[in-house]
Design brief:
Methylamine Dehydrogenase, Chain H, 4-stranded antiparallel beta sheet
C-alpha cells in the first residue's frame, strides 16, 4: 500500500509531495462526480458539488490512466478490508461454538464461586432464561439479584413480611415469589424497581411456578392451588382441597400443597403433596378453572416438581419429610428423585373433518 493510500485510510493528510498528489486525485474525483451530477440535473446536489469543484479547479490534472490505477487500488483495499472483517466474524463464531461445547461437556461439578449476602437459609433460585442473571430468595425475607458472568452482586429487593418460600423466573427481567406466611404472591419488576402484590390463599404460600410470561400457579398449606394473571390481584381460579382431606372424621384437614409445576406455554399443571400421588391438571379457557386429569401414585412428600422442556417426562423430588419443616415423617417413602414418563394422547379429529 502506498504512503498516500495509507494516509487516506487513517483519515490523516500525508506530508510532502505525496500529499499534493493525493489531494489532486481527490479533487479530480470530485470533478468527475460533479460532472455526473450535472448531467443528471441534480439541483441542490449539483450546486454543492459544482461549488466544491470550482474552489479546487486550480489543481493540476493527470492522465486518465493514473485515475484508473487509483480506483483499482481502492477497490482492492476494500476487498481486503471486507475479507478481514469476514474472517474475524468467523473466528468469533468458532470461539462461541467452542465455549458452548466446553460448557456442555463439563460435568465435573467443580465449585466455581460462592455468592454471599443472605442472612438466613436460601429457599429459591432461578436464572432469567437465556442470561447470566440469577435471582435468589431466602428466609431473611429478601430477594437478591446476581450477575453470574461477573460473579457480582447487583441489588436486593425488599417487601415480603415473612420468610420467602419459593421463586421462579422466565425471560423477562422480573421474578415471582411465594411469600409463605405473609400470604402474598409478588411479581418483582427489576427495571422499574417496583412490585405487584397478589392475595388469595388463606394459608402459607409455599410454592410457585410461572406457566407463561402472563400467568402463574401457586400452592399453599391450606390445600388450595391458585391460577393467577398478572393483570388481576386476585386468583383467576382457586381450587380448594386440591389433594383432598386427611385426619379423623370431624377433624379433617386439607393436604398441604408442597410443590407445583407447569409445562411452559401450555395448559398442563402438576401439583404435589403427601397424599400418595402427584396430580395433573388442565387449565381451562382463560386460565379461569382447573380440571383434574389424573393421579400418579407416588408415596412421600413431593417437595419439588419439574417438567422436561419437551413434556415427555415429569421429575419429582420425594422426601420422607416436608422440605420446610419436620412436622411428619413417612417411613415407607424413599428420599429420591423420581422420573415419571408421560405419554401424549392424540387429539381425536373433530366431527366432519
Amino acid at each position: 500500500m502506498s504512503a498516500t493510500a495509507a494516509a487516506r485510510k487513517r483519515g490523516k493528510p500525508a506530508s510532502g509531495a505525496g500529499a499534493g498528489a493525493g489531494a489532486g486525485k481527490r479533487r479530480r474525483k470530485a470533478d468527475s462526480a460533479g460532472d455526473r451530477g450535472k448531467s443528471k440535473g441534480g439541483g441542490k446536489m449539483n450546486e454543492e458539488i459544482s461549488s466544491d469543484s470550482e474552489s479546487e479547479s486550480l489543481a493540476p490534472r493527470k492522465p486518465e490512466e493514473e485515475e484508473e490505477e487509483e480506483l483499482e487500488e481502492t477497490a482492492q483495499e476494500k476487498k481486503l478490508r471486507l475479507a478481514k472483517l469476514y474472517l474475524e466474524q468467523l473466528r468469533q463464531q468458532e470461539e462461541e461454538k467452542a465455549e458452548a461445547r466446553a460448557f456442555e461437556e463439563d460435568q465435573s461439578c467443580q465449585h466455581l464461586y460462592t455468592f454471599t449476602g443472605h442472612r438466613d437459609a436460601v429457599s429459591g433460585l432461578a436464572f432469567r432464561r437465556g442470561t447470566h442473571q440469577l435471582y435468589s430468595t431466602s428466609h431473611d425475607r429478601s430477594v437478591k439479584v446476581w450477575n453470574v458472568a461477573e460473579n457480582s452482586y447487583v441489588e436486593t429487593l425488599f417487601g415480603h413480611q415473612d420468610a420467602v418460600a419459593a421463586l421462579d423466573a422466565l425471560s423477562r427481567e422480573c421474578c415471582v415469589t411465594a411469600g409463605g406466611r405473609d400470604g402474598t404472591v409478588r411479581v418483582w419488576k427489576i427495571p422499574e424497581e417496583s412490585q405487584l402484590v397478589f392475595y388469595g390463599h388463606q394459608g402459607s404460600i409455599d410454592c410457585i411456578h410461572l406457566i407463561n410470561e402472563e400467568h402463574m400457579v401457586s400452592g399453599a398449606d391450606d390445600g388450595s392451588v391458585a391460577l393467577w394473571g398478572l393483570s388481576k390481584k386476585r386468583p383467576l381460579a382457586l381450587q380448594r382441597e386440591a389433594h383432598g382431606l386427611r385426619g379423623e372424621p370431624g377433624l379433617e384437614q386439607p393436604f398441604w400443597i408442597s410443590s407445583v409445576a407447569a409445562l411452559l406455554n401450555t395448559d398442563l399443571v402438576a401439583t404435589g403433596s403427601h397424599s400418595s400421588c402427584v396430580r395433573l391438571w388442565q387449565c381451562g379457557e382463560g386460565f379461569r378453572q382447573l380440571d383434574l386429569l389424573c393421579d400418579i401414585p407416588l408415596v412421600g412428600f413431593i417437595n419439588s416438581l419439574k417438567f422436561s422442556s419437551s413434556g415427555d417426562f415429569l421429575v419429582a423430588g420425594v422426601g420422607q419429610e416436608h422440605r420446610l419443616g419436620r412436622w411428619w415423617r413417612i417411613k415407607e417413602a424413599r428420599n429420591s428423585v423420581c422420573i415419571i414418563p408421560l405419554r401424549r394422547v392424540p387429539v381425536p379429529p373433530a366431527a366432519g373433518s
